[in-house]
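User: Could you go from structure to sequence for me? I need the amino acid at each position, not a summary. Structure tokens:
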């Protein structure tokens, strides 16, 4: 019981750090001039997304393992994910339109592209030219949802007590990502999730230390090739923290709890701050730092409100959908 608690604290802390990293990335991208030190350092914040993918690769099969998930429960698994994630997601789309409506009071009126909007409900915007995301961070939600569709089907193999079956399941995932259909559905992001799956197999007692290291290294090679050395280091640190390290704290725990809501709302709020107080040459570093602080406080406040009013009830609704024996 104590181990589970510590593991959850670690995951919440990692989520909190990842959400702050992505927020920092977008703030520094807008509030500091290109070529400055803070702008360059902010580029590393984008790797918070990679950490999120590793965490999902661990958390989902781990939760399925504890709940004795079976392939006949696939429809319930997808329902649980949709009920858990869609309400905050849809509300964040509403936030984008609400902020646009406020801006339209003294500017162009808001027009709704209904096809573009409806495509958001299936995470399909990336596949239709001219229908971009209303919030560009949504592309990662599409990648996560593709992983949900895959893990619900392949889970019996990766969670098998037979090593050969586990390796077969991972091989299918890796091979599928490089097939024509897999590139459309999953792509090379699957190797980020696979690093988390390797940690799940180790923490669930399905694989030995040697097997864990082997699988992890095999997934790290394509990550390095497709996403670069920095991404590989982030994956190594994230996976190592989940597998071996226990840490937490109230602040990181709080940020971890609201991390999904923070991820959803921060982009339009950063743009809103930028709209009212744009960085201009000669304004100085302190001006940019001040804008980052304002955007961060505003984003955390709005994320907490979304978590309290929408995400937390959605978590309860999702937990009420049980897997039946």
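Assistant: Here is the amino acid at each position, in order:
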């Amino acid at each position: 019981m104590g181990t589970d608690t510590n593991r959850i604290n670690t995951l919440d802390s990692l989520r909190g750090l990842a959400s702050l990293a992505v927020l920092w990335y977008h703030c520094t991208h807008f509030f500091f001039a290109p070529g400055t030190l803070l702008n360059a350092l902010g580029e590393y914040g984008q790797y918070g997304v990679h950490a999120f993918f590793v965490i999902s690769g661990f958390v989902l099969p781990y939760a399925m393992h504890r709940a004795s998930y079976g392939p006949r429960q696939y429809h319930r698994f997808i329902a649980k994910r949709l009920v858990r994630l869609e309400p905050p997601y849809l509300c964040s789309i509403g936030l984008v339109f609400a902020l646009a409506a406020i801006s339209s009071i003294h500017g162009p009126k808001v027009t709704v592209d209904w096809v573009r909007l409806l495509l958001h409900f299936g995470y399909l915007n990336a596949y239709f030219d001219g229908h971009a995301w209303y919030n560009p961070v949504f592309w990662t939600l599409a990648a996560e949802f593709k992983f949900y569709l895959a893990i619900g089907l392949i889970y019996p193999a990766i969670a098998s007590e037979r090593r050969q079956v586990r390796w077969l399941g991972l091989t299918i995932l890796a091979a599928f990502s490089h097939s024509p259909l897999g590139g459309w559905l999953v792509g090379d992001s699957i190797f980020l999730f696979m690093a988390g799956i390797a940690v799940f197999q180790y923490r669930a007692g399905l694989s030995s230390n040697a097997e864990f290291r082997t699988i992890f290294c095999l997934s790290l090679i394509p990550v390095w090739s497709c996403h670069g050395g920095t991404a590989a280091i982030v994956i190594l640190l994230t996976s190592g923290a989940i597998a071996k390290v226990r840490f937490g704290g109230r602040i990181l725990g709080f940020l971890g709890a609201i991390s999904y809501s923070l991820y959803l709302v921060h982009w339009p709020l950063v743009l809103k701050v930028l709209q009212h107080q744009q960085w201009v040459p000669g304004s100085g570093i302190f001006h940019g730092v001040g804008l980052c602080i304002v955007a961060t406080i505003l984003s955390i406040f709005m994320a907490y409100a979304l978590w309290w009013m929408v995400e937390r009830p959605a978590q309860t609704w999702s937990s009420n959908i049980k897997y039946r024996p």
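One structural detail worth keeping in mind: The chain has one domain: 2-319.
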